Amino acid sequence: MTLVEMGIPAVRSRLPSLDGRPDTPYLVDRFGRTARDLRVSITEKCSLRCTYCMPEEGLPAIPQDELLTVEEIGRLVALAVRELGVREVRFTGGEPLLRRDLERIIAGCHALVPGTPLSMTTNGVGLAHRARGLAAAGLSRVNVSLDTVDRLGFARLTRRDRLESVFAGIRAARDVGLAPMKINAVLMRDTLAGAPDLLRWCLDECCQLRFIEEMPLDADHEWARANMVTAAELLDVLGTRFTLTEAGRSDPSAPAEQWLVDGGPATVGIIATVTRKFCDTCDRTRLTADGMLRSCLFSDQEFDVRNALRMGADDDEIATIWRGAMWNKWAGHGIDAEDFIPPERTMGAIGG
Ligand code: SAM
Ligand code: SF4
């Protein structure tokens, strides 16, 4: 199987150019942005098969020796925080709970950068059994992905009948203090009518709900601009049950626009990734499970830090690669352009 068939870009530039870059330790780019938020994918495996993300059979497995180890993840996270100005780290995947050494990854990072918030994006399946241990290891918060509270709808969308396990995971995480509990829901045509029920459930369970427009990052390549559910459509549907009042963004780099529900204080967030793109305030930098740096979900440009680490690169050398990777970040995605080409890696292989 070729790298492209595995969803892994064939082109991996080795040393990014630093031409014109100002003398700063931080992860700045040519468009005036500074990356402060690190997303670390730790696996391509998953317990669900959401249609907007994974193929039915799952992604091809990354060979074990190509996955970053607990120690390598710790070293890169510590470097990002101590030398590069990263302020927040989020573990993702695939499904992070499928790494049996997840608690060791969290504990290792927490010991190295004790003051830095460490969070995780998870589908919540099996979280109930691990929430306490993860909180004890130093995890600050979790985002759980949940698109519908209808059991059949959930099973259709995720190709697995695991809704009760997700509910249990959310409640257990909240009960051990992994708060605030945020729920992410991708906007899909099949689940749109159930959006008010999902919001009601989240309000009753004291969870902060955010809807996200579907992006062209699905492994099945079914996404089509003409069919996608827009934030505007969602507002119409929620408006049949709730009164929503625009409340702006919590901070300028936060992608979600907040809406007060029935006068507040509860809110619902909407991330209009496609119809109101926010690339000009993006503050993300990404590390894939097999140790590639990416500056954007949609760009195929990757820089191989796993190989650099294993060839004996010191922290200064890794920092230079990372600064260069971000310096060469492009202005933003062109999802709305006629000639848009989705990236080779899909969401599950990058880490959302
Ligand atoms: N398995 C974990 C989960 O589902 O939360 C973490 C990985 S998942 C790739 C991270 C986030 O990406 C989830 O919130 C998921 O809903 C979102 N996601 C996946 N595919 C997407 C797509 N095509 N468009 C928008 N969001 C997507
Ligand atoms: Fe798995 Fe998360 Fe992708 Fe769903 S969105 S298939 S839970 S990685």
Tally of extended strands? Answer: 14
**Major sheet characteristics:** 12 strands, mixed
Q: Any idea of the CATH class?
A: Alpha Beta
Distance between the termini: 25 Å
The level of helicity is 25-40%
H-E string = EEEHEHEHEHHEHEHEEEEEEHHH
CATH architecture: Alpha-Beta Barrel
Q: What is CATH's topology name?
A: TIM Barrel
Tell me which ligands are bound: S-adenosylmethionine, iron/sulfur cluster
Strand order of the largest sheet: 9-10-11-8-7-6-5-4-3-12-13-14
Number of contiguous helices: 10
Beta-strand percent range: 15-25%
Q: What do the pLDDT scores average to?
A: 93
Question: Topology of this structure?
Answer:
Elements: E1 27-28, E2 34-35, E3 37-41, H1 70-84, E4 88-92, H2 102-112, E5 118-122, H3 131-137, E6 141-145, H4 151-158, H5 163-175, E7 182-187, H6 195-204, E8 208-213, H7 231-238, E9 244-248, E10 257-261, E11 267-271, E12 284-287, E13 292-294, E14 302-304, H8 305-310, H9 315-327, H10 347-350
Parallel strand pairs: 3-4, 3-12, 4-5, 5-6, 6-7, 7-8, 8-11
Antiparallel strand pairs: 1-2, 9-10, 10-11, 12-13, 13-14
Can you walk through the features of this model?
It is built from ten helices and 14 strands. 45% of the residues are buried. The strands form two sheets. It has a twelve-stranded mixed sheet with strand order 9-10-11-8-7-6-5-4-3-12-13-14. It starts with 26 loop residues before the first strand and ends with a helix. The protein has one domain (27-350): TIM Barrel, CATH 3.20.20. The protein is globular, with a radius of gyration of 19 Å. The chain is of the alpha/beta class and 352 residues long. Residues 46, 52-53, 92-93, 95, 121-123, 145, 184, 186, 212, 214-215, 217-218, 347-348, 352 line the site of S-adenosylmethionine.
